């Protein structure tokens, strides 16, 4: 049986994962609107991953005889100044998620919920990849700057993400 404090914290994180999906879909829509279909595609795939992360936590709650209680999802921003600003926010957001997962891990260890700590280890490892991918794209955008041809090359490359 899962402890109430951990159940509440996991429910909060499910909501945060779904917010991440909303955020990335909003960013994708913005990038579609400025004809950067590859960047938009990359973020749509990222949004699907965030939904899967939420379900992984949801399933853990159920497996531990807890209850998933779904709360309203905050509306994400709708506009950005540039592709660089989008990916600065993606990277910042992934760093925040890493901090959230770390806080969850701290709580599970404090409460001696080793089953949930083991489940969260997947997220700890996943966040290394998430931050790395976001930073790599941000650095590439900064390298090419506002040169349209270079930005379109990156756009073409990101369209290939599966």
Automatic annotation (TrEMBL):
One Pfam family it belongs to: Ferritin
Gene Ontology cellular-component annotations: cytosol
Keyword flag Transferase: no
InterPro entries: Ferritin, Ferritin-like, Ferritin-like_diiron, Ferritin-like_SF, Ferritin_DPS_dom, Ferritin_prok
Transmembrane segments: none
Keyword Iron listed: yes
Species of origin: Methanosphaerula palustris (strain ATCC BAA-1556 / DSM 19958 / E1-9c)
Highest taxon listed in the record's lineage: Archaea
Stretches assigned to the Ferritin-like diiron domain: 1-145
GO process annotations (BP): intracellular iron ion homeostasis; iron ion transport
Keywords: Iron, Iron storage, Metal-binding, Oxidoreductase
SUPFAM superfamilies linked: Ferritin-like
Name assigned to this protein: Ferritin Dps family protein
One Gene Ontology term of the molecular function aspect: identical protein binding
């Amino acid at each position: 049986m899962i402890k109430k404090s951990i159940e509440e914290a996991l429910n909060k994180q499910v909501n945060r994962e779904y917010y991440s999906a909303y955020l990335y879909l909003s960013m994708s829509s913005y990038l579609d609107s400025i004809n950067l279909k590859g960047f938009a595609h990359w973020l749509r795939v990222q949004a699907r991953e965030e939904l899967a992360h939420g379900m992984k936590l949801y399933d853990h709650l159920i497996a531990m005889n807890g209850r998933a209680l779904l709360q309203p999802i905050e509306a994400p921003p709708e506009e950005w100044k540039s592709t660089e600003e989008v990916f600065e926010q993606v990277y910042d957001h992934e760093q925040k998620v890493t901090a959230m997962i770390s806080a969850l891990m701290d709580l599970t260890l404090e409460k001696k919920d080793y089953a949930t700590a083991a489940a969260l280890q997947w997220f700890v490892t996943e966040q290394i990849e998430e931050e790395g991918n976001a930073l790599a794209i941000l650095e590439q955008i900064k390298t090419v700057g506002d040169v349209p041809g270079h930005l379109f090359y990156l756009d073409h490359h990101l369209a290939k993400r599966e």
